[in-house]
Write a sequence for this structure.
């Protein structure tokens, strides 16, 4: 079952795979699980997401979706900054993936 957690890569590198194909490369500071978090009601019933393959020496911290939600509910300013950051992460990934597909076509 899909993990209902968000992850942050503190150091090292990781690869994101979908169907065995590398779709992204992550570096220190990158988030994982942000799409699942923003659409968590949809993803709670989903059985499989992307696979994250960490490189040797990668350090990752994880936080449950429920804990993130509880913290954000208590602090509107933090919630605003968090969602703004997550939207920028998602935009960058969308832009980069679209660019890669256009270049490959």
């Amino acid at each position: 079952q899909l993990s209902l957690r968000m992850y942050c890569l503190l150091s090292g590198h990781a690869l994101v795979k979908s169907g065995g194909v590398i779709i992204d490369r992550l570096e220190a500071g990158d988030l994982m699980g942000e799409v699942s978090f923003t659409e968590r009601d949809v993803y709670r019933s989903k059985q499989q997401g992307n696979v994250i393959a960490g490189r040797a020496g990668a350090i990752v911290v994880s936080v449950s979706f429920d804990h993130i939600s509880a913290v954000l509910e208590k602090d509107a300013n933090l919630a605003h900054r968090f969602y703004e950051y997550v939207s920028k992460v998602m935009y960058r990934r969308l832009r980069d993936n679209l660019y890669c597909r256009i270049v490959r076509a």
Summary: Residues 38 and 91 are 13 Å apart (CA to CA). Helices lie at 34-38, 40-43, 65-74, 76-104. The radius of gyration is 14 Å.
